[in-house]
């Protein structure tokens, strides 16, 4: 006897549910999100709105040495992640990414300042002091001279690194 075909109404009800493959993809995404949270330090993790159960599971992950045990535990973390406020967690990840981009941009600006100071010398120092009046002019001059000397002699840029650290401290980054 032939199998009865579903009516259009029955098909609509079936289409509402996600497929098994889609559920698996979502679970793998949650497990990846859990892996990212596990890789973070406890201080970084504190920014996220996570439940106590999930925090305990994340802490417990560090004690698991067996590969298969860790895989099963990550499935458990993924299961717990389903109950979490995912939009809030993604918002914190976005904020962290934005902070990282701002910090990187500020570091690039300081690298340009460093190169400009080494190239221009005293003129560059005057411009830097106009932008950052709290910087120590004497230390800045000394580091710039040392970096220029190292560049001329073809040595490793140890003073240029020290100059960058001084610029970073002066800019309070």
- What's the total helix number? 9
The count of DSSP E runs of length 2 or more, i.e. the number of strands, is 0
CATH topology of the largest domain: Diphtheria Toxin Repressor, domain 2
Specify the overall morphology: elongated
CATH top level of the largest domain is Mainly Alpha
Query: Which residues sit in consecutive blocks of at least 5 with pLDDT less than 50?
Result: none
Mind summarizing the main beta sheet?
none
Could you give the distance between the termini?
A: 77 Å
* Share in helix: over 70%
CATH superfamily of the largest domain: PSPTO4464-like domains
The total number of structural domains is 2
Mean pLDDT score, rounded?
A: 88
The H-and-E topology, N to C, reads as HHHHHHHHH
What does this protein structure show overall?
Keywords: Cytoplasm, Ribosome biogenesis, RNA-binding, rRNA-binding. Member of a network of 50S ribosomal subunit biogenesis factors which assembles along the 30S-50S interface, preventing incorrect 23S rRNA structures from forming. Promotes peptidyl transferase center (PTC) maturation. One of its GO terms (molecular function) is rRNA binding. The protein contains 9 helices and no strands. The termini are far apart. It has helices at 8-16, 20-39, 42-45, 52-61, 67-81, 86-120, 122-131, 137-153, 158-170. The relative contact order is 0.07.
List keywords for this structure.
single chain, 173 residues, mainly alpha, Diphtheria Toxin Repressor, domain 2, 9 helices, elongated
